[in-house]
TrEMBL record:
<dbReference type="GO" id="GO:0002161">
    <property type="term" value="F:aminoacyl-tRNA deacylase activity"/>
</dbReference>
<feature type="domain" description="YbaK/aminoacyl-tRNA synthetase-associated">
    <location>
        <begin position="193"/>
        <end position="292"/>
    </location>
</feature>
<dbReference type="InterPro" id="IPR007214">
    <property type="entry name" value="YbaK/aa-tRNA-synth-assoc-dom"/>
</dbReference>
<protein>
    <recommendedName>
        <fullName>YbaK/aminoacyl-tRNA synthetase-associated domain-containing protein</fullName>
    </recommendedName>
</protein>
<dbReference type="Pfam" id="PF04073">
    <property type="entry name" value="tRNA_edit"/>
</dbReference>
<dbReference type="InterPro" id="IPR036754">
    <property type="entry name" value="YbaK/aa-tRNA-synt-asso_dom_sf"/>
</dbReference>
Length: 306
């Protein structure tokens, strides 16, 4: 039995070496096919990013152009287009802005009593969120804030509940300040930045609440958690900050030095490389995860679920 265990271990090591050799050959081939700058014409996005990567000691990377219908296809088709090992190796970079929703007013509407259940609707002012309100004579009033964020596949909805009021009485309204401190206007403090770029898998569901908890923790609880309210940055704002348009956002060569948060799930991929935006809508960048981490120095946070 012990011999079998040793053989399995050796076999696993051999297979891992073969995979790494195949990846190395794949990246080398891709790099050799990349056009070199032969004249003083305008520099392309690909050549510019390649130069940045190489000058920072990153060599295991490749660029690939995708067809115009790429984002109209399912993840399985995108995987095949990029020759990726799985759909989980397909990732995106999203720009989040901290505390931009303003004050959120929790307003509980008039209760309608029907068979012992009180039903009402509240509205969140400024953020655009909606508060679903229910209450019962014994359970008190409960609101569930509907939090939405956009992805290329549509809007995903999550519910986060809190209890107000009690004993069947109507709940009360209140103001919750979710704005970042007025001193937080840029990205100079990576622990308390105005913006963050989060890299997550397309196949996973991003959790803004987890990132909020992480930022609260990394600041040793000195900043109220409500100050780390996160939302997707408007497309125009994202483009201005990064220099890249939607679906082309990448963490390499951004106009602004925005702190990056890498979802921990990406670090566990096998093989250890992934695909993300390459600076243009139809250009994708594949990069070895370990070298990406060395270059970008992101926070690594478990901020998604499947």
């Amino acid at each position: 039995m012990e011999c079998l265990t040793k053989l399995e271990k050796i076999q696993h090591q051999i297979l891992k070496r073969i995979t790494n050799l195949e990846l190395s050959n794949k990246f080398s081939t891709a790099l050799s096919l990349q056009p070199t700058k032969q004249h003083s014409g305008p520099e392309t996005t690909e050549s510019l990013l390649s130069s940045i990567l190489r000058s920072n000691g990153v060599y295991d990377f490749a660029f690939k152009r995708v067809p115009s219908h790429y984002y109209d296809t399912p993840l399985e088709a995108r995987r095949d287009i990029l020759d990726a090992p799985s759909v989980h190796h397909l990732c995106k970079s999203i720009v989040l802005v901290v505390g931009a929703c303003g004050d959120v007013m929790v307003i509980i509407g008039i209760n309608i009593r029907k068979k012992g259940l009180h039903v009402g609707v509240g509205v969140a002012s400024g953020s655009g969120d909606t508060l679903l309100f229910t209450s019962s004579p014994h359970g008190g009033a409960k609101t569930n804030r509907v939090v939405g964020y956009c992805s290329d596949g549509g809007i995903r909805i999550g519910l986060g509940g809190m209890v107000v009021g009690g004993g069947g009485r109507s709940g009360s309204g209140g103001m919750v300040n979710t704005q970042a401190h007025e001193s937080v206007t840029d990205c100079s403090d990576r622990n308390n930045s105005k913006y963050y770029v989060v890299v997550v898998q397309y196949s996973a569901r991003f959790s803004a609440e987890t990132v909020k908890n992480f930022l609260y923790s990394v600041n040793n609880g000195k900043i109220p958690k409500k100050r780390f309210n996160l939302r997707l940055a408007p497309e125009e704002e994202s483009t201005q900050l990064t220099g890249y348009k939607r679906n082309g956002v990448t963490c390499v060569g951004m106009k602004t030095d925005i702190p990056v948060i890498l979802d921990e799930a990406i670090t566990k991929l096998n093989p250890d490389f992934f695909w993300l935006g390459g600076g243009e809508i139809d250009l994708k960048l594949g990069i070895r995860t370990s070298q990406f981490i060395s270059l970008v120095k992101p926070y690594i946070v478990s901020c998604s679920s499947t």
